[in-house]
């Protein structure tokens, strides 16, 4: 290989570091996530099926920004169907892909769900999707909608689509700042 060809494949480390610096700098989407930091009370409605009345339960959520304002961590605790329930989520915005990304894990499963999506035109709504191979229902698609109503209220909705192809609302959580 000629010296000329080797030069073409070389990476300008200074230029590469500048690209990484830009991509690693929090921006407006991260400010949206930061607006969700704080202590919250959550009123939850969950449906076991489309023709069943919702079960209602309460919980609390502590949310804080991590790593210099790049990620929002959520720790949730409550009782679901008479049993203790807790979960941890991480939410971010990937400047490289231009998408919101989230993970969720809780005491009802050993899985880690990975969500990805975009913001609504209103700048206060985040819509994401995830895939999951449910042990009972088989492959499923989840769709979540997080809507910031005002400085002290957020609503999170979770929908599922299973084998039948029909989307059903699974959960609605209304968060009120403590």
Supply database-style keywords:
178 residues; disordered N terminus; 3 helices; ten-stranded antiparallel β-barrel; single chain; Lipocalin; mainly beta
Major β-sheet profile: 10 strands, antiparallel, barrel
How much of the sequence lies in strands comes to over 45%
Helix percent band: 10-25%
What is the CATH fold-level name?
Answer: Lipocalin
Name given to the CATH architecture:
Beta Barrel
Strand numbers in spatial order across the main sheet = 1-2-3-4-5-6-7-8-9-10
How many DSSP-defined strands? 10
Shape field: globular
Q: How many angstroms does the end-to-end distance come to?
A: 66 Å
- Count every helix, treating DSSP H or I runs of 4 or more residues as helices: 3
CATH class annotation: Mainly Beta
Q: Any low-confidence stretches, pLDDT <50, length ≥5?
A: 1-6
What is the succession of H and E elements? HHHEEEEEEEEEE
Oligomer: single chain
| Rg estimate, integer Å | 20 Å
Average pLDDT across residues? 92
CATH homologous superfamily heading: Calycin beta-barrel core domain
Counting structural domains, the number is 1
Structural class: mainly beta
Topology:
Layout: H1 3-9, H2 13-23, H3 28-34, E1 38-46, E2 55-66, E3 71-80, E4 83-94, E5 99-106, E6 113-119, E7 125-134, E8 138-150, E9 153-161, E10 167-177
């Amino acid at each position: 290989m000629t010296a000329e060809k080797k030069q073409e494949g070389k990476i300008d480390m200074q230029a590469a570091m500048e690209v990484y610096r830009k991509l690693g700098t929090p921006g407006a989407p991260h400010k949206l996530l930061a607006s969700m930091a704080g202590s919250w009370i959550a009123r939850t409605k969950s449906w076991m099926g489309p023709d069943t009345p919702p079960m209602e339960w309460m919980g609390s959520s502590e949310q804080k920004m991590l790593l210099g304002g790049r990620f929002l961590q959520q720790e949730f605790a409550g009782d679901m169907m008479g049993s203790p329930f807790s979960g941890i989520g991480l939410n971010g915005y990937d400047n490289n892909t231009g998408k919101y990304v989230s993970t969720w894990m809780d005491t009802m499963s050993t899985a880690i769900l990975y969500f990805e999506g975009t913001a609504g035109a209103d700048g206060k709504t985040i819509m994401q999707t995830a895939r999951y191979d449910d042990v009972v229902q088989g492959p499923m698609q989840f769709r979540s909608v997080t809507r910031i109503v005002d400085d002290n209220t957020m609503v999170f909705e979770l929908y599922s689509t299973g084998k039948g192809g029909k989307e059903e609302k699974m959960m609605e959580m209304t968060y009120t700042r403590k």
